[in-house]
Amino acid sequence: MSFLGAFPVLRLGQKRDSAPSVGFLSEHWCAPQQALAPARDLARAASAVLVVGPHVTLDEKAAALWVPPDCLGKDVPLGFLARSHVTGLFVGNVATLIPARCLDDASALPHARLTFPYRVGALYGNATPESAFEHGFRSCSNTSAEVKETQNRQALAASLGPDVLNGVWWCLGALHALRNDLSLTEAWNRHEPLLDTPNDVPKVLGPEARATRLATGIPVQALSPAQSRALKAMLSPWPDGLFWDRFAADAAGLDATFQGYGTSMQRAARRIWPDLPPLEEDRNGLD
Q1: CA nearest 35: which of 132, 111, 92, 90?
Q2: Cα(164)–Cα(83) distance, rounded to whole angstroms?
Q3: Of 213, 218, 195, nearest in space to 133 by CA
Q4: Fewest Cβ atoms nearer than 10 Å: which of 96, 109, 113, 275?
Q5: CB count, 10 Å around CB of 267?
């Protein structure tokens, strides 16, 4: 079984939050805090379970995604990416294929130890202003594993989005997270009165972006919907090179099987992103 569709899907959240998954062995729903027991039961019946986070809609082609068979028997939770509907950027920590043995003695759902640079769906979370603000904040918080990145990517993560529903709220949350000036609750309480005057929300974005540039040096911008839409149209359909190199770095801490795939991913990334520095062994071959 080397295709994702061979495994059951456990969706975390409410059923109305996302479209149904297509092409998988089965689909099940539960609250995030109650996921361990059903995940364990589903994995035992099918050797592994694909756990999908809240507000993630799986692509129709996700079930046909090939996973190396020799990786499936290693008892290593494998992660996958989604593309943010708001920013257009790729994000991790959205879907994890968990082998059954990883759940036998677990006290909580394990996190992915290795994330493939493969897209399996889209991340939303912008249905309401509060939800968009929270997701924007968490996507750029200092505790997020995805924000060990370049300043340019951080700038995009906090600037793109005003072209979609509640996208400005997402940006406001992200800007506060980059400044690290207030907690999520404090930042939301500061802006919540704007719910009564929604036309004023875009007017706040400019001053907040300027404050973030001054405090962090990150070149965030207050974009119009048209500007955001145009920039998102220019984003690559491929995950950023950092995801490919991160896969290799994580694989280096595992066995030779994963290390071999890590090197292959790094080489593939340098075909897609020629500006990435060459691998050490390739650089030596040029000397």
Answers
A1: 111
A2: 14
A3: 195
A4: 275
A5: 15
What are the start-end ranges of the H helices in 61-140? 69-72, 129-139
Q: How many beta carbons lie within 10 A of that of residue 258, not counting itself?
A: 22
HSE toward the beta carbon, residue 89, CA cutoff 13 A: 24
- pTM of the shown model: 0.90
What dihedral angle (degrees, nearest 10) is formed by the CA atoms of 183, 246, 78, 2? 150
Please give the Cα distance from 167 to 165 (Å, whole number).
5
What are the φ/ψ torsions at residue 17 (nearest 5 degrees)?
-70, -25
How many angstroms separate the CA atoms of 168 and 133, rounded?
Answer: 8
Closest CA to 42 of 27, 58, 55, 54: 27
The Cα–Cα gap between 176 and 136 comes to 9
Query: How many residues comprise the chain?
Result: 287
Beta strands in 26-180 (DSSP E): 27-30, 48-52, 56-58, 78-84, 90-99, 114-123
Q: pLDDT tens digit string along 145-201?
A: 444 567 888 999 999 999 999 999 999 999 999 999 999 999 999 999 999 999 999
201/271 Cα distance (integer angstroms): 42
What tokens appear for 5 in the block?
């569709």
Distance CA 12, CA 56 (A): 9
The answer to whether 99 and 77 are in contact (CB under 8 A) is yes
Query: How far apart are alpha carbons 81 and 1 in whole angstroms?
Result: 21
E strand intervals along the chain: 9-12, 27-30, 48-52, 56-58, 78-84, 90-99, 114-123
